[in-house]
Specification:
The complex is a heterodimer. By secondary structure, chain A is an alpha/beta fold. Chain A has a single domain, classed as P-loop containing nucleotide triphosphate hydrolases (Rossmann fold, 3-Layer(aba) Sandwich), CATH 3.40.50.300. Helix content of chain A is 33%, strand content 28%. Chain A has a six-stranded mixed beta sheet with strand order 6-7-8-3-9-10, with helices on both faces. The N and C termini of chain A lie far apart (50 Å). In chain B, strands 1-2 form a two-stranded antiparallel ribbon. In chain B, 49% of the residues are buried. Chain B has 14 helices and two strands. In chain B, 76% of the residues lie in helices and 1% in strands. Chain B starts with 6 loop residues before the first helix and ends with a helix. Classes of the chains: A alpha/beta, B mainly alpha. Chains A and B meet through helix 2, strand 6 and helix 3 of A and helix 2, helix 9 and helix 10 of B.
């Protein structure tokens, strides 16, 4: 892992097909912190993640990694700076789970030693609880198993910036907590971690900061307690909620009566 | 369609996985190489002039400067070997390798085991080029006129498909396939018109070109295709790790540092060159590009390095055997080889599919 430069989106907008998907978003992904990106469906979370990953060119504004514009980096340089877990993780041929995880080391081919490769792979396999799946073929796995294998592939990429798009979507309760613990551990180890989440309580429990997107704009960013207020959630999600405190973290509970 | 290996084959603990898959690859490569040498030898022996295995070996040794007692005394035997049989066997080897590697690359960039070079218009473009040369009697380039036009037609068709389906710096796979269908249809119409307009002799020539044949292959032609096949396979081998990443999907491949667009353009050119060179001299030889990589993947898994090596060897074996049958099944006649590749490949492929299905408990 190389030293973590900051990743900064400066007044970023994205237009597609005459619609503005992201509108003037400015924020910084800080090393050592876990940032949860939340917001209603279609708020532009995945688009923002795509811009931060350098795969989408912003229509206006810039994204910089340290001093350099992210889009100016070569593909391989970017792949050594940031790893991305996408929502779609289909594999077109019946590769074994181990093969898929090993592919995450591709950016370091000829740079890392075999021992480093093995260590990274081993750690990721344990962190995602997939050791028993290694010899299975990827297409034969369930949705949740695939999500964990894909996360392992992202972890072995061993980048200072880690972007996870809904890593908990297909997972059971236990594995959801596992994944968030992994994400928090990455942040504690000095990496910049961005996680797109739908579960606001999960976000509040693990994130250092929460960024709330609404209609392509950044509605709020800050500590969970500051962002998750009944007023803001009612305005953005159009649902009334109570905020309950549990073990020091806010729990977001919709009023169902 | 995806293929799942049987649990029994993949059982074993993780630490043993890499050595065992390497061993399986080694076994496969040695077996295919052995089969190829045997098929080439048999192919050199059997024919209208019967030649003994000792004479074949002796003649080759003599040619590389090792005098020996086995070399044929009869100059007619020597001539049959070096002018007729060896060029034809070499052509079969390199055409098979080129077609199968092109198929493996095609399947890799489309992420689909059903893709084959014909999808992007190589075959119909090449056929149109060849038909044009035949009907218009173009001889500006001497005896290679048909081959040059066939290659140009195939390459041009691929370029056209690619350029039309590209928009804003990206190429969508579905658009690429649909454009390929349109260009194939156009090529088919062109061939139909030329068949209609041609005289009887040209018509026959076009039909037989499309059926494919290695009859009359010259050493110089085989040498040229050999150079293309070796260089092309080497490029495919170099790109193989990127094809592995591409199996994770375009976005994930990009996140892992692959310039997907450049890889795709380069690979399509590679496919056009490999296929174009193969069909230019021999006409359309169906099925090799589709079935050989698929069989290798079933036997040895989907990793692209061994897949490309196995496909090159497997394609060579299939075409050498098909060509041997083409010229020996019916005495004195040369059957269309495209018919035979399908005739051998089809049932073999089907047997494997059924076995696979039984092993994995369904069409996985």
């Amino acid at each position: 892992m190389i030293a973590t430069p900051s990743l900064r989106a400066d007044r970023v907008s994205v237009d597609t097909g005459g619609r503005t998907i992201l509108d003037d978003v400015t924020f910084e992904v800080v090393p050592g912190a876990l940032l949860a990106l939340v917001g209603p469906n279609g708020a532009g979370k995945s688009t923002l993640l795509g811009v931060l990953a350098g795969e989408l060119a912003p229509s206006r504004g810039t994204v910089r990694l340290g001093e350099r514009r992210l889009r100016e980096l070569r593909h391989l340089e970017r792949s050594r700076a940031r790893a991305v877990l996408t929502q779609e993780n289909a594999v077109s041929f019946p590769f074994s789970v181990r093969d898929v995880v090993e592919m995450g080391r591709a950016p370091w081919a000829r740079l890392a030693s075999l021992a480093e490769d093995e260590a990274a792979i081993d750690a990721a396999i344990d962190a995602t609880d997939i050791r028993h799946l290694l010899t299975r073929t990827y297409p034969s796995l369930s949705g949740g198993e695939r999500a964990r294998v894909s996360l392992a592939r992202v972890l072995v990429q061993d980048t200072p910036i880690v972007l996870l798009d809904e890593p908990t979507a297909a997972l059971d309760l236990g594995h959801q907590e596992d994944v968030m613990r992994v994400a928090r551990r990455l942040a504690r180890a000095g990496r910049a971690v961005v996680v797109v989440l739908h579960d606001l309580s999960l976000a509040a429990a693990y994130a250092d900061r929460i960024a709330l997107l609404a209609d392509g704009r950044l509605a709020a960013i800050g500590a969970p307690d500051a962002v998750l207020t009944p007023e803001l959630i009612a305005r953005v999600y159009r649902v009334d909620v109570d905020i309950v405190r549990h073990e020091g973290a806010p729990l977001v509970v919709p009023r169902r009566a | 369609m995806t293929v799942t290996r049987a649990p029994a084959e993949t059982a074993g603990i993780a630490a043993e996985q890499r050595p065992s898959s390497t061993r399986r690859t080694a076994v496969l490569v040695v077996a295919l190489a052995g089969a190829l040498v045997a098929a080439m030898l048999v192919s050199a022996i059997i024919g209208q002039v019967p030649i003994s295995p000792a004479e074949v070996v002796g003649s080759i040794l003599k040619a590389v400067g090792i005098p020996n007692a086995w070399a044929p005394e009869d100059p007619i035997t020597e001539a049959a070997l070096w002018i007729v049989r060896f060029p034809r066997v070499l052509m079969a080897v390199v055409v098979g390798a080129a077609l199968a590697v092109a198929g493996a690359v095609m399947q890799a960039i489309f992420g689909n085991p059903l893709a084959e070079p014909g999808v992007v218009g190589v075959s119909s473009g090449a056929a149109l080029g060849a038909a044009l040369a035949i009907v218009l009697g173009i001889t500006a380039l001497g005896s290679w006129s048909t081959a040059v036009l066939a290659f140009t037609g195939g390459f041009g068709a691929v370029l056209l498909v690619y350029l039309v389906s590209r928009s804003r710096g990206r190429t969508e796979v579905v658009t690429l396939i649909l454009t390929g269908i349109a260009v194939n249809a156009f090529g088919g119409a062109g061939i139909a018109f030329l068949l209609f307009a041609a005289d009887k002799a040209s018509r026959e020539q076009i039909v037989f070109w499309q059926l494919g044949s290695l009859n009359g292959s010259l050493g110089s032609e085989a040498g040229l295709v050999a150079i293309v096949a070796v260089l092309g396979s080497a490029v495919a081998w170099r790109l193989a790790p990127r094809y592995d990443l591409l199996a994770l999907g375009e976005r994930n491949a990009r996140h892992l540092g692959v310039n997907v667009e450049a890889l795709r353009v380069g690979s399509i050119v590679l496919v056009a060159v490999l296929t174009g060179a193969a069909v230019a001299f021999c006409g359309i030889i169906a099925f090799v590009g589709l079935v050989v990589p698929h069989i290798i993947r079933m036997v040895n898994g989907p990793r692209h390095r061994p897949l490309i090596l196995g496909s090159a060897l497997g394609g060579a074996v299939l075409v050498v055997i098909a060509d041997l049958l083409a010229r020996t099944l019916v005495w004195g006649a040369d059957l269309p080889i495209g018919m035979l590749t399908s005739l051998i490949g089809g049932p073999f492929f089907f047997t494997l599919l059924v076995r696979q299905r039984r092993a994995s408990g369904g069409w996985a």
